[in-house]
TrEMBL record:
CDD domains: PRX_1cys. The active site is at C46 (cysteine sulfenic acid (-soh) intermediate). Residues 4-164 form the Thioredoxin domain. Belongs to the peroxiredoxin family. Prx6 subfamily. GO terms for cellular component: cytosol; nucleus. This is Peroxiredoxin.
Length: 220
């Protein structure tokens, strides 16, 4: 059976966290949530990552996006480690919950298991990140190996892309290397006539050899 992926509903797990007992669906409520795992507390790359998450927390909050971490370490370990995370980047406060999954059942259900990394108790979490929508479904996933820290600018860009597409009900998408404020592309299911109604500001069609007119850009 394939693991949790885009379009799947996130399991409604209930776990202890640094902010008390967390029921994932209740925590998501009507918001977007970045649900992310890390291999272990008191490890170098993870410390830089969770510090970066804390540093970017205000940007995610502006967009109505919540953060939710998880690893196999217990809550006491998470709380002690938080002191290091905050000290690494002074001024960054770890205000988001970090869930504990010592028996490793949750990371399996969330498709966050690293096939190669393990300790004496078994396999460890990978650097997985799911962006979950208000409908409790996975909208986007990143999967990184333990040797590679995540890029928070890209996570933020991905959030902006998802929110832009949702705001326009899937009629637009964002092209490669897109950043907020730049032109988006009009979806192929939208005819030129519909595009004229949806985007009165106009749109431009790329002149390509096929002359199929499918690559259309507009500002939103």
């Amino acid at each position: 059976m394939p693991g949790l992926t885009i379009g799947d509903t996130v399991p409604n797990l209930e776990l202890d966290s640094t902010c008390g007992r967390i029921c994932i669906h209740d925590y998501v409520a009507d918001s977007y949530v970045i649900l992310f795992s890390h291999p272990g507390d008191f490890t170098p790359v993870c410390t830089t990552e969770l510090s970066a998450m804390a540093h970017y927390a205000s940007e995610f909050q502006k967009r109505g996006v919540k953060l939710l971490g998880i690893s196999c370490d217990d809550v006491a370990s998470h709380k002690e480690w938080t002191k290091d995370i905050e000290a690494y980047k002074p001024g960054s406060k770890v205000s988001y919950p970090i869930m504990a999954d010592p028996n490793r059942d949750a990371i399996k259900q969330l498709n966050m298991v690293d096939p190669d990394e393990k300790d004496a108790q078994g396999k460890l979490p990978s650097r997985t990140l799911h962006i979950v929508g208000p409908d409790k479904m996975v909208k986007l996933s990143f999967l990184y190996p333990s040797c590679t820290g995540r890029n928070m600018d890209e996570v933020l860009r991905a959030v902006d892309s998802l929110l832009t597409a949702a705001q326009h009900k899937g009629k637009v998408a964002t092209p490669a290397n897109w950043k907020p404020g730049e032109k988006v592309v009009i979806g192929p299911s939208v005819s030129d006539e519909e595009a004229k109604k949806l985007f009165p500001q106009g749109f431009e069609t790329a002149d390509l050899p096929s002359k199929k007119g499918y690559l259309r850009f507009t500002k939103v």
